[in-house]
Design goal:
It contains eleven helices and five strands, in the order H-H-H-H-E-H-H-E-H-E-H-H-E-E-H-H. With about 260 residues, the chain is an alpha/beta fold. It is globular, with a radius of gyration of 22 Å. Residues about 5-30 and about 35-60 have low confidence and may be disordered.
Length: about 260
């Protein structure tokens, strides 16, 4: 894989973890350690530079199972009466992913007279570092997309489906999403959006059972009253600029709907 391809994957939010030694040599290291054979007889000094370490895990780990019950989580999420207190609860909640994430990324709440809410999948590496949703190149592109329909973060609320970054940016498990969902539901109740713009496949499927590939830019009903339009994530647009035309068409639909009193 060339450097350009790797850079494209990095822009898309993909992070790679490389083993310290080839897997075949890792087996030799492990065998040597198990039989107390001097490492110098089997492996190079570079391979034994870190005592007790054979290789870095290639597959990001699954978060530990949380012992707190869903009933308790749902009860907690019902308590906040405004978005400020909900955001504080999210930051303090001991989700299994919290231990591995640098920062929780609570909702960005703006004065939103037009009633639009943007929902993305989960924090990227830039978001995790800053504690702010849609940071870095993806966030810059999102700002340009909003500006194209005369909007900005000052009048749009933004929220992830999952408030903590997964190890290595892997896809979240069903349990991890389930444990965050009561907070998402409470935010929807408090914000009362008229229109939701989902970014990427996960929130479209989770909130409206919509397949993004088949229904990009379509207007969908939801169980909580708001209309929902699924569009590609800005990370995807960084890799596939030709898809910006489809997103522009969807944004124009969203703009017209927000100007209509009927939604």
């Amino acid at each position: 894989m060339g450097n350009n391809a790797l850079r494209d994957l990095e822009l898309a939010g993909v992070r790679w973890e490389i083993t310290d030694v080839p897997l075949a040599r890792a087996a030799a290291v492990a065998a040597a350690m198990a039989s107390n054979v001097p490492a110098s007889n089997t492996v190079s000094p570079i391979e034994t530079a870190t005592p007790g370490r054979v290789s870095t895990c290639v597959v990001p780990p699954i978060a530990p199972i949380q012992t707190i019950s869903m009933e308790t989580i749902e009860s907690m999420a019902m308590r906040p009466t405004d978005m400020a207190s909900l955001s504080r609860m999210i930051c303090e909640f001991n989700h299994p992913l919290r231990a591995g994430a640098t920062n929780p990324v609570p909702p960005h709440v703006a004065l939103s007279p037009n009633g639009m809410l943007i929902i993305t999948d989960m924090p990227g590496a830039d978001d995790d570092a800053s504690g702010q949703i849609l940071s870095g190149p993806a966030g810059e592109l999102m700002d340009k997309m909003l500006a194209a329909i005369s909007m900005s973060r000052e009048n749009v609320s933004i929220m992830p489906m999952l408030f903590w970054r997964t190890p290595g940016g892997r896809s979240p498990s069903a349990t991890e999403l389930e444990m965050a969902r009561p907070f998402v539901n409470k935010a929807l109740e408090l914000l009362k959006p008229r229109l939701i713009l989902t970014l990427g496949t996960l929130p479209a499927m989770e909130l409206a059972s919509v397949n993004l590939g088949k229904s990009h830019g379509s207007v969908n009903d939801t169980s909580f009253g708001a209309k929902l339009i699924p569009i590609y994530h800005p990370n995807y647009l960084l890799l596939k600029p030709a898809a910006k035309r489809d997103v522009w068409n969807a944004l124009q639909i969203a703009e017209k709907m927000l100007k209509s009193p009927e939604i």
